[in-house]
Amino acid sequence: MARTAVPTPEQTPAASKPTLDGFTKNIGFTPNMMALFAQSPVAFNAWAALLGSLSKTLDVKTRDSIGLAVSEVNGCDYCLTVHSFTAEHMAKLQADEIILARKGHASDAKRDAAVQFARRVIETRGKVSDADVEAVRDAGYTDANVMEIVALVAMFSLTNFFNNVFDPERDFPPVAPAGSI
């Protein structure tokens, strides 16, 4: 159950309104998480800027797979519904690929290395081993790509933590609990 009521559009701070309106136009509706997050223009606009920048890194399948893996580790049910939806509809991942990503893997070898590395970053709080770094490099990722993977882990963790704290009502199709996949 949500801990905070979703604000109405009239309650959105003026400094968040342009960013929120942009998301609403692109998505077709205002997700509950965004309506809540927009209550802090500083945090919301900073997150939106990071999201915009990181949407230009790697490829959409890898980004969505990392989002699924990180959200699974962080136990964020809201983000799992969002990332499962976007992975299916935007990244065009099949259902079995979405499950693999939630488990920290992918059928594509290069993407698998990135997703495994992202999962290791979140599980170890960034204290990965030399072997973890070498494995992602050996898969063809540059040091800049490794930095982008770490930034994606941090960005997804931010929304995971936000949603775990505020627990907004789910407005994307439900997904199976982790124990059943």
Descriptive tags:
single chain, 181 residues, mainly alpha, AhpD-like, 2 domains, 9 helices, 63% helix
Give structural notes.
The chain has 181 residues and is an all-alpha fold. It has 2 domains: 13-54, no CATH class; 60-170, AhpD-like (Up-down Bundle). The protein has helices at 17-27, 32-37, 41-54, 60-73, 77-89, 95-102, 109-123, 130-138, 143-166. The longest helix is centred in the C-terminal third of the chain and has 24 residues, at 143-166. It is globular, with a radius of gyration of 16 Å. The chain starts with 16 loop residues before the first helix and ends in a 15-residue tail after the last helix.
Secondary structure: elements and pairs:
Elements: H1 17-27, H2 32-37, H3 41-54, H4 60-73, H5 77-89, H6 95-102, H7 109-123, H8 130-138, H9 143-166
Helix pairs in contact: 3-9, 4-5, 4-6, 4-7, 4-9, 7-8, 7-9
Order of helices and strands: HHHHHHHHH
Please state roughly what percent of the residues sit in beta strands, choosing from under 5%, 5-15%, 15-25%, 25-35%, 35-45% or over 45%: under 5%
Largest sheet: none
State the fourth-level CATH superfamily of the largest domain.
AhpD-like
Output the CATH topology of the largest domain. AhpD-like
Mean pLDDT: 94
Uncertain regions spanning at least 5 consecutive residues? none
Termini distance? Answer: 23 Å
**Structural class estimated from helices and strands:** mainly alpha
Protein name: Peroxidase-related enzyme
Keywords: Oxidoreductase, Peroxidase
Organism: Phenylobacterium koreense
GO molecular function: peroxidase activity
